[in-house]
Specification:
single chain; mainly alpha; 15 helices
Length: 306
């Protein structure tokens, strides 16, 4: 016959019963307050985010002799290819002064967006071991991809500025302020799409391949290796020209060119560029909130799907 619990045990049971239950785990995103809860969790784990960013950067260049130099190898190779093939063989350089700086500026801008979206899309699947074993805010993984992309962008941007100094074309002019809204447009849209696609990729793995194809199409749909003036001369439909011009990537690339390329005044550019960038940024912020809410709604079954 079992003995009755003593008074000390009963007191412990009473204290445990008096402790209020606090929900732990992923929020569903159905309540607007989940946004603030998620942001507080992310801020509380900012040190872990920093560690994930460092881990991604170290893992990417682990055991390589040249290390972070490889973050410059691809854009430099693309710059050389486009400069020779598109600029010289196809004659695009004849209508664009300082064609090398023009292309490098566009590659730097579009490269930030592409790296954020592509790397963030696979972030949850790549970190499936952590997702299945412990609870951390799932947004940390795509956001870590954003952080590593920003580091690579900073390295490439520094090289771009160095090239302008060597070429005697440093952009010391008021238009350099276009960098701020253009950079924010790329960051906001890249993060928004990265969050959304990272969640969808858990349920449908084809998303990652579709994103790679889509970013390639967006590259050619942006005035990186050709000018906006060339496109406006070819596109006869005002509707198609409006769609092309108001593409956030097109606006951001043109904004970077206005800021960093001294030949911008020699070619016609869209009217009211700053206003267009601010409108695109406002739409991007809304898209980011919607994507975050969709991410919160989908993250509940990540562990089971993985």
């Amino acid at each position: 016959m079992s003995e009755a619990p003593d008074s000390a045990a009963l007191a412990r049971y009473a204290r445990l019963e008096a402790i209020p239950l606090r929900p732990v785990g992923a929020s569903t995103g159905l309540n607007p307050r989940d946004w603030w809860t998620s942001l507080r969790e992310l801020f509380a784990r900012r040190e872990m985010l920093d560690l994930l960013v460092r881990r991604d950067l170290k893992a990417k260049y682990k055991d390589s002799t040249l290390g972070f130099f490889w973050s410059l190898a691809r854009p430099i190779m693309l710059l050389a290819i486009y400069f020779v093939v598109v600029g010289q063989f196809l004659g695009a350089a004849r209508g664009i002064p300082d064609f090398g700086i023009y292309i490098f500026t566009g590659l730097t801008a579009i490269g930030l967006f592409t790296e954020i979206v592509v790397s963030a899309t696979g972030a949850i699947v790549v970190n499936s071991g952590l997702v299945k074993k412990v609870y951390v805010p799932r947004e940390l993984f795509p956001l870590a991809s954003v952080g590593s992309a920003l580091f690579n962008f900073a390295v490439q941007f520094t090289l771009l500025l160095g090239v302008t100094v060597i070429a005697g074309a440093f952009p010391w002019h008021p238009q350099i302020l276009y960098l701020i809204p253009s950079f924010l447009v790329l960051l906001v849209y890249g993060t928004a799409l990265g969050l959304l696609f990272s969640a969808l990729n858990v349920y449908l793995r084809d998303i990652q391949y579709l994103v790679e194809v889509g970013t390639m199409l967006l590259f050619w749909a942006s005035p990186v290796v050709y000018s906006w003036q060339m496109a406006s001369d070819i596109i006869a439909s005002p509707v198609l020209l409006s769609v092309f011009t108001n593409n956030p990537l097109t606006l951001a690339v043109i904004g970077f060119q206005e800021a960093l390329w001294l030949g911008a005044d020699s070619l016609s550019q869209p009217d009211n560029l700053l206003l267009r960038l601010l409108i695109a940024l406002g739409v991007g912020v809304v898209l980011l909130l919607v994507s975050h809410r969709a991410f919160l709604r989908l993250q509940g079954n990540f562990a089971q799907e993985l």
